[in-house]
């Protein structure tokens, strides 16, 4: 793993907090990602850190991922391209993203048209809808 130990702020039970995000493994076996609101733009390094964290929490298995963003969060073009690679999706079975505002919906739909994900990826108006959709991929 390439995640440096000094980059990890806290690891408790099934939760990992870094300066970029907090991820946790919920009771349904779904990894929940919440980006730090101080992070204005997601870059490729953030996504590589996240991939490594998912690998650690999921013990190397492909996981179901729920992502909670905040309004007007940006992502670099390089990071967008990276999300569609085998490396980025190595530990991902399916992604659901909370799209609870119009600006998020516009950005997300644009992203899906420009960068086609390698794994099932869908946006939802609520966390409940997103979780229900992800659970259909459980074995």
Note the topology.
Blueprint: E1 8-12, E2 15-18, E3 21-25, E4 30-35, E5 41-42, H1 44-57, E6 63-68, E7 74-75, H2 77-82, E8 92-98, H3 102-114, E9 120-124, H4 127-135
Parallel strand pairs: 4-6, 5-7, 6-8, 8-9
Antiparallel strand pairs: 1-2, 2-3, 3-4
Detailed description of the structure:
The protein is α/β, with parallel strands linked by helices and 139 residues long. The protein has a single domain (5-135), classed as STAS domain (Transcription Regulator spoIIAA, 2-Layer Sandwich). It contains four helices and nine strands. The radius of gyration is 14 Å and the shape is globular. The chain starts with 7 loop residues before the first strand and ends with a helix.
């Amino acid at each position: 793993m390439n995640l440096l130990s000094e980059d990890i702020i806290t690891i408790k039970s099934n939760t990992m907090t870094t300066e970029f995000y907090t991820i946790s493994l919920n009771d349904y076996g779904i990894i929940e990602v919440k980006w730090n609101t101080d992070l204005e733009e997601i870059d490729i390094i953030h996504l590589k850190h996240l991939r490594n964290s998912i690998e650690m929490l999921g013990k190397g298995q492909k996981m179901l991922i729920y992502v909670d963003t905040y309004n007007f969060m940006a992502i670099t073009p390089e990071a967008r391209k990276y999300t569609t690679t085998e490396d980025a999706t190595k530990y991902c079975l399916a992604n659901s993203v909370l799209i609870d505002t119009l600006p998020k919906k516009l950005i997300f739909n644009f992203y899906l048209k420009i960068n086609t994900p390698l794994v099932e990826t869908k946006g939802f108006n609520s966390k409940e809808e997103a979780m229900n959709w992800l659970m259909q991929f459980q074995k």
